Amino acid sequence: MRTKVTFVELTAYEGVLPLATGYLQAYASQVPEIAAECSFEIYSRWAAGDRLAVAEELIGKDSDVYALSCYLWNMGIVRWLLDRVYEHHPDAQFILGGPQVMNHIQDYVSADRENVVVCNGEGERTFLAYLRQVVSGDMDLHEVPGVSYWRDGELVTTPRAERIVDLNEIPSAFTTGVFEPGKYSSAILETNRGCPYNCGFCAWGAATNDKVYKFDDNRVREDIAWISANQFGSVFIADANWGISPRDVEFTKYIVEQKDRYGYPRRVDMAAAKNRPDRMAVITETLAKGGLTTSQTVSLQTMDSHTLDMVQRSNIRLSAYTTLQTTLREKGINSNVELIWPLPGETLETYQKGITELCRLRADVIMVYPQLLLHNTPIYKQRDVFGVQTARVPSEVAEADVVLSTNWVTTSEYEEGVWFAYAMHALYNVRGLYYLANYLDRNGIATFADVYANAARYFKNRPDAAVTQYFADSVKNLGNYDFRDSGMVAHMVLHAHREEFDELLARFVRTQPWWTNENAQAAFELDLLARPYIYAEPMRTPGYEFRHIRCERIDDYRLSMTLPPAIGELLAELDLIGYEGPVPREVLMEQKTARKLPYMDELGTAANALYCQGMFVCLRDYLPTFVAVPAPANGGR
User: Fold this and answer.
1) What is residue 637's predicted lDDT score, i.e. its pLDDT?
2) The pTM is what?
3) Which letter does DSSP use for residue 575 in this model?
4) Mean per-residue pLDDT, 502-524
5) pLDDT of 463 strictly over 90
6) To 10 degrees, the CA torsion angle through 218, 224, 228, 232?
7) pLDDT in tens, 224-282
8) Is the distance from CB of 184 to CB of 232 less than 8 angstroms?
9) Would you say residue 636 has pLDDT above 50?
10) Mean pLDDT estimate for the chain
């Protein structure tokens, strides 16, 4: 009988094509003896799905080999499944691979499970050598490079396999028929492997920190054409630095060409090249003009030079990122800046100062992610030196350890920083107090950091509002780990609890020392009127007594406003008024409707939050527009 091999890949999102296991199957199948002796099946499911159903299906397959891909987002469920399947098939062979388990067999495999093996690096050559031992029946794992396993209570680790230099050694998982057409909606594309950087928080560069090896140009084009022809709605480019090579520009153009031919894909996401703002600007503009990009991520991680040194990221020019962000803004292309809190070396003060700098640079969106202590990273190896303390995210699916303190940040300061991030997100990203904060900072009255820190303290002491209760629960339960977290805040602030949030902000601003400034009051009124809508819905009239801005509703989406001179000037300084010449006081504001979907009650809050997560980083696509109305000639006489 043929050896039955089942690959198990539990994805972070539904419908994601399991490229890693596809490579393993394609690589092993090219060897005649393996192709003849083995039958392969890729079992791919959403990690947060029905675990009982998944366990039952895997047990029912009665496979000879179970190969499981292990990541922090699925390790909780993988542990659980491994125990269940092992209990029913103790004589089967199991091999675990992926960044969460490599070099960490002691954490996942007990010494009595001698038939459970861990792969410690690039998988293709190791897995082929492993299958040869399974098929032969010898199971001499000394002959398999790059694995760890237990024998007679002793841990055995074989020398790591050499990296694959000629990536064309790996057959395409797309064009060789590994994947069933129509089964997946999101594709992963890899054009090279390797990362020349060794950032302390990242397992990507730490795993290679070496030369970047490339797939052949024609091979990449064939993969792109297959993805497009098979109607994948979205593509994630899994290179560590898309744009590091000039050919990436040409590949980007080819993706657009295929989209024009087949209508797919409709969205492309990537990890941008660290030091090529010029090339990334071309790539992003190409995708934007082709209708293929939503928002370009700018992965700063920190604005503090000392922290960059501490996390071995100082060789990545901060100026390159800020140049890219500025270029994208000038071209009208959506972008979002990523930060990590708290990295070694970062203090609460430098973190808040960095966010103020980004606000002054007019970053479209600023995303603050928790620092996760990842296996096999430089920070993980130096966690005692840096004083890193963590807490495990309460999840049955994931296995994420969030950094709560370092030598530079106490646990209470960490929590203060998370509250600050939530305040900034609600007030800057989704425009709760965008115009007011800009007015105060530009006029030297209060910095962005002052506004957000004071708001965070106020929110913390007002747990009666739905939004502030969400913040408090998230800080307590590490909810900022959830990838839908920012979308949930956008959903609440811009839709579900909009009126309640208006009242919360009105109470907050009245407690501040600058509230006696009439222009600050007018800026707040503009914030109430101009806050965007993330769903397709008519404008709502704020329940507030307007004293400085006179407004008249034209229809469900348009509003005529008369502004004080200082507020008209503020809109002009922010490049938000479509008019040349002196700034008039009469302004027409229109809420956009294109690309928005209505709130989908039948899908539930989680699905709508996911929609909001994708929308709010596309800020320019849903912010209202302002058009200045020129004053009549001769003052209207």
Assistant:
1) 38
2) 0.92
3) T
4) 98
5) no
6) 150
7) 999 999 999 999 999 989 999 999 999 999 999 999 999 999 999 888 887 787 888 89
8) yes
9) no
10) 92
Asked if residue 120 lies in contact with residue 97, where contact means CB atoms within 8 angstroms, the answer is no
| CATH code for the domain in which residue 135 is found | 3.40.50.2300
Is the pLDDT at 203 greater than 80? The verdict is no
Q: What's the pLDDT at 192?
A: 95
Torsion sign (Cα): 340, 346, 351, 357: negative
d(CA 610, CA 54): 24
Q: How far is Cα 339 from Cα 355, in angstroms, rounded to an integer?
A: 9
| Structural domain includes residue 458 | no
Residue 164 and residue 192 in one domain? no
| Domain annotation covers residue 448 | no
Domain span at residue 46 reads 3-168
- Residues 132, 249 within the same domain: no
Among 533, 549, 616, 619, smallest CA distance to 585 is for 549
Other CB atoms closer than 10 Å to residue 208's CB: what's the count?
A: 20
pLDDT tens-digit map of 281-291: 899 899 989 98
Residue 406, classed as helix, strand or coil, is coil
Domain count, the chain: 2
* CATH code for the domain of 249: 3.20.20.70
Q: What is the DSSP string of 534-562?
A: SSS------SS--SS-EEEE-SSSEEEEE
**Domain membership flag for residue 575:** no
Q: In this structure, are 105 and 209 located in the same domain?
A: no
Q: What is the DSSP letter of 180?
A: P
Concatenated DSSP letters for 6-24? EEEEEESSTTB--HHHHHH
Q: Are residues 162 and 192 in the same domain?
A: no
Q: Which of 386, 409, 432 is the last residue of a domain?
A: 409
The yes-or-no verdict on residue 126 having pLDDT over 90 is: yes
Does residue 12 fall inside a structural domain? yes
**pLDDT, position 614:** 87
**Residue showing tokens 């895997």:** 58
